[in-house]
Write a structure and sequence with these properties.
This protein has 9 helices and 18 strands. The chain is α/β, with parallel strands linked by helices and 328 residues long. It folds into 2 domains: 171 residues, Medium-chain alcohol dehydrogenases, catalytic domain (Quinone Oxidoreductase, Chain A, domain 1, Alpha-Beta Complex); 126 residues, NAD(P)-binding Rossmann-like Domain (Rossmann fold, 3-Layer(aba) Sandwich), CATH 3.40.50. Helix 9 links the parallel strand 17 and strand 18. Helix 3 packs across helix 4. The longest helix has 14 residues. The relative contact order is 0.16.
Length: 328
């Protein structure tokens, strides 16, 4: 089968589409024909070698975590899914080991979703049946973004009327965070360049700040001199966050998902992608209600999967990028 693989550690330049064996399910596993797979920056961070001490990869390494597809085979001891089931969710490289338990428990492992077929461990809340009314492309764009947004909202305990600055609102996770906050009546102040203003306002942002032409902290203080209630960082490295913390009133929340994380002394709490039982079903329901809109802005055929990651690494990206099967 064809799959997008990394031949070694590096950036998008080490990626190529290659022939690899079709993975077969073992005990407790399912095989899935991939219809669509979403890109995430974490896919590239793992390949970069930033985590190679804790997540040592074997090469060739098949990329990808988010997906939607059809169950094509099940191994022994699988009672949850059957061939023909339409499912969606996420998985991680088995090299992630115990770190994968941060994402879901039991962990969700995969052979890599940027492929014609992938194998997943079946008994995990990071997989769910896809409702027939939810298109595969929309479903494939949701897992990492929404399963990061839900823990953020739980950690922040956002009340109606809360003023919240969202850094990186136009990115993939922002496409879930902003509409979920807006649905709770939160006043969202989103950082976005002018060409993305309409997009983030469409997601539910009440205000935007152009981070390229204005000092975000100074502009926020100018608009809200009494301070805001929370800051949610989806994009900036930890070293850039202390300068922004002062815009949040005493007792407000400082939340982060970006790598590298700020130290605990900064007051920021780093929140990780996490799937609880029932979360993906909730995500699907929110998508069907229109609360979580499709944020797919670019689609690539499988033969251009390496280019998709090059674009993710080198270009300004709005929303989610997706690789879709030719016959999906």
């Amino acid at each position: 089968m064809k799959a997008l693989v990394a031949r070694g550690y590096g950036g998008a330049e080490v990626l190529e589409v290659a022939d690899v064996p079709v993975p077969l399910p073992g005990a407790g596993q399912i095989q899935v024909r991939i219809a669509a797979a979403g890109l995430n920056p974490a896919d590239l961070r793992i390949v970069s070698g930033a985590f190679k001490d804790s997540v040592p990869l074997e090469f060739p390494h098949v990329l990808g975590s988010d997906f939607a597809g059809t169950v094509t085979a099940v191994g022994p001891e699988v009672g949850r899914f059957s061939p023909g089931d339409e499912i969606f969710g996420l998985g991680q490289a088995r090299a992630a080991g115990s770190m994968a338990s941060l994402v879901s428990s039991p962990p969700s492992f995969t052979t890599g979703t940027m492929a014609e077929y992938a194998v997943f461990d079946a008994d995990t809340p990071a997989l769910a049946l896809r409702p027939a009314e939810l298109p595969a492309e929309h479903a494939a764009s949701l897992p990492v973004a929404a399963l990061t947004a839900l823990p953020l909202l739980r950690a922040g305990d956002f009340a109606r009327g809360t003023k919240t600055l969202v850094i990186g609102a136009a990115g993939g996770v922002g496409g879930a965070v902003v509409p979920l906050l807006a649905a709770q009546g939160v006043h969202v102040i989103a950082t976005a360049i002018p060409s993305d203003e309409g997009y983030v306002r469409g997601l539910g942002a009440s205000e935007t700040i152009d981070y390229r032409s204005a000092d975000v902290a100074a502009e926020t203080r100018s608009r809200h001199p009494d301070g805001i209630d929370a800051l949610v960082n989806l994009a900036l490295p930890g070293t850039a966050l202390p300068a922004l913390a002062g815009v949040v009133r005493p007792g407000g929340r400082l939340l982060n998902i970006a790598f590298p994380s700020p130290g605990p002394s900064t007051g920021f709490e780093t929140v990780y992608t996490n799937a609880r039982p029932g979360d993906l079903e909730e995500v699907a329901a929110l998508a069907l209600k229109g609360v979580l809109p499709s944020t797919v802005t670019r689609r690539y055929p499988p033969a251009e999967a390496a280019k998709a990651y090059w674009d993710l690494e080198h270009e300004h990206v709005r929303g989610k990028l997706l690789v879709t099967a030719v016959d999906a």
